[in-house]
Design brief:
alpha+beta; Phosphorylase Kinase, domain 1; three-stranded antiparallel β-sheet; 10 helices; 18% strand
């Protein structure tokens, strides 16, 4: 599989339209030479036990999961690997294409939940953030694919099935949305960086890949991925519960879409070696395969 999503684009000369946030990493809106707006997010860093730093894998995880979504027929935000050169250093990251035009607005899930009476006390409050309440919040929302024959809720179930498959632990209330103009429709899925063991260092990945201790294995790591829903159930538990809340034909459809992606390896092979190590690729592949097996166990 090949595609421009895996090309490492130099955005150093793109015009800065708006700085989204400043802090530990760069996050800003840029205009490409054609005038399209992209959000650049710098790859984050973590520390080894000895204090030295390493790049986490939130850049490659984002584009890899976007590719998985595409293989499953799930509308997803457009992501590209990118880098920003400044002060004699190159800052790796990703860019995502703006999902709305000037006549549209993006309404995040926390606002939709508020409209049905689920009011969080803070951005980290998950009280009332349940599948049932998400389903209620989407009752008057059109699906992202008009001719699909599925509801917006059916599509959201596909989003959490994707999360379970890749171990995405960051589907909080602001990491899904609807696009509003004269009507509302479910927006493509976005923000999947917290997936596939992205935050681990290579030594930890190798230790887990090589261990004979079942409690420290890749499969155990995958099974422990927790969601952002109330009570922090696992991403697999959320996906299985969600599939019990749709018609059997929809459930079978999503299981079929999981079946359509038998391995992550062809996608991982397209990521530049400068962005993903062999250990990271092997670990991501193992997480994906373990989760895929668990999804097939769904009754």
């Amino acid at each position: 599989m090949s595609g421009p999503g895996f090309d490492d684009i130099d955005v150093s000369t793109w015009r800065v339209e708006h700085v989204e946030a400043l802090g530990r990493k760069r996050k800003m809106w840029l205009l490409d030479p054609g005038g399209d707006a992209w959000l650049y997010k710098q790859t984050t860093e973590n520390r080894h036990s000895d204090g030295t730093r390493y790049w986490k894998g939130d850049d490659w995880a984002e584009v890899v999961v976007s590719a998985v979504a595409s293989e499953m027929g799930i509308p997803a935000a457009t992501y590209r690997l990118a880098h920003l050169d400044e002060s004699c250093s190159s800052l790796p990251g990703v860019i995502s294409l703006k999902m709305v035009n000037d006549e549209e607005s993006l309404i995040e899930g926390n606002i939709l939940l508020d409209e049905v009476g689920v009011r969080a006390s803070s951005v980290r409050d998950r009280t009332g953030y349940t599948l049932q309440n998400v389903q209620r919040s989407l009752e008057e929302v059109a699906p992202p694919v008009a001719e699909s024959g599925m509801t917006s809720w059916d599509w959201f179930v596909g989003f959490v099935v994707l999360d379970a498959l890749v171990g995405n632990t960051d589907r909080h209330q602001q990491n899904w949305a609807v696009i509003q103009d004269s009507t509302r429709r479910l927006a493509p899925t976005f923000d999947h960086a917290s997936s596939l063991g992205f935050l681990l260092d290579d030594q930890t990945r190798l230790d887990r890949l090589r261990t004979e201790d079942a409690g420290f294995s890749v499969g155990t790591y995958a099974a422990k991925a927790s969601s952002k829903f109330e009570g922090n159930p696992s991403t697999l538990a959320i996906a299985k519960s969600a599939m019990e809340m749709v018609e059997p034909t929809v459930r079978d459809y999503w299981i079929g879409q999981v079946e359509a992606v038998p391995s992550l390896d062809p996608i991982l092979a397209e990521v530049p070696a400068s962005r993903i190590s062999p250990a990271a690729a092997s670990f991501a592949s193992g997480v994906f395969q373990a989760n895929r097996t668990q999804l097939y166990d769904t009754p």
